[in-house]
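User: Hello, can you help with two protein structures?

Assistant: Certainly.
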Amino acid sequence: MVLAVTEPTLSGLHDLQRIADLADHFGMDMMVCINRWDLNQQISQVMTKDNLVTAPVGTSLEGAKKLLHKNRIEKLLVIDDNGNLQGLITVKDIEKMEMYPNACKDHLGRLRVGAAIGVGPDRLERAEALIKAGADVIVIDTAHGHSKDVLTAVEEHKKHFSNCQLIAGNVATADGVAALIKAGVDAVKVGVGPGSICTTRVIAGVGVTTLNISGCNPVPKGVFTDTERSPVAAVL
């Protein structure tokens, strides 16, 4: 239960302006912490150095809560055996863990991120940029997923990005599910026009809600071999 430190990181020799620049670049609101100081000062000149409350790597949720409560603080530094910062636990982190215990997170404790692309000619370029930015899964998201363009896009994506998980849809029939599985998806997105702001039904006059997708099962025989595992249907 540690939020690991990843790039970007700064040393005490950087000035506060560097923090402001990074906050602006990554869309983080950090100026509340530094707007009372001269931004030309080094970080080491304004950071607290003495009497820091820390916890070792591997500290449990309950252990972190006790330290935070005992010391009346909201942020707990996680350090390794050499005194290097490895992570940060905050009161808000703990509250979110308790409120959303089943949140999907990676091994660093970060929420997993999915990003959608279409089937246009720039799809591979977009997918590559999203993967480089840190997306955990790519979604080929269309109103009608059981189509030649979608199946081709799935095959090309898996050919170029075999290590990236791929979800594709939307479909509402067993044949549609089978076609996407054969094309190489890791999961299938089911339901046509189920969203509150989706215009598929208005424009096309058709749709199947996620409450009425029984037609997606069973998948036709021959889609899976005895050693293959059925992808999870993503009801979104």
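That covers the first. Now for the second protein you mentioned:
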Amino acid sequence: MGVRMTATAMLRGAALIGLLSTASPLAAGQLPDAVTKAGVLHLNVNATYPPIEYKDPQTDKLVGLDIDLGEALAKRLGVRIEWTEVAFAQLMPALQTGRTDFILSGLSDLPTRHETMDFIDYLSSSTPSPRARLRLRRIFAARRLARSARPRSRTRSANGAPSIARRKAGPRSR
């Protein structure tokens, strides 16, 4: 399942990069003045999460989905990116002290971080955010309630472990 989630995330990211790279540049007025004047966007990354972001051992260059996404954003914004690889513990302090314009790395969107940072959640991993977990709990609770009225039979799987089988009631809808 983890491989499937990563592949799905990669496809979504690739689609986003494709859309960004074909769009025309945004108006310069949509960027902070300092970035517009310098023509450079400073990004920090913790490149230890392949295939999302990592350092290619052969070329010693940053590669991966986040790097491609950042480059597509820069092209769309009409600026270039100055990448800085930092330790994970330094990502947030670098943003808070103004040493970087933003972080493009695997950083969880936690409510405790909302006081000091804004987030754009563009990918999800196998661990959903607290808000997503609440939504999922509500969805699954409603499904359990709906299924509790359906007849079930308890069986054993081929290897002897208990499993629950539900009687088929026609074509499945998603």
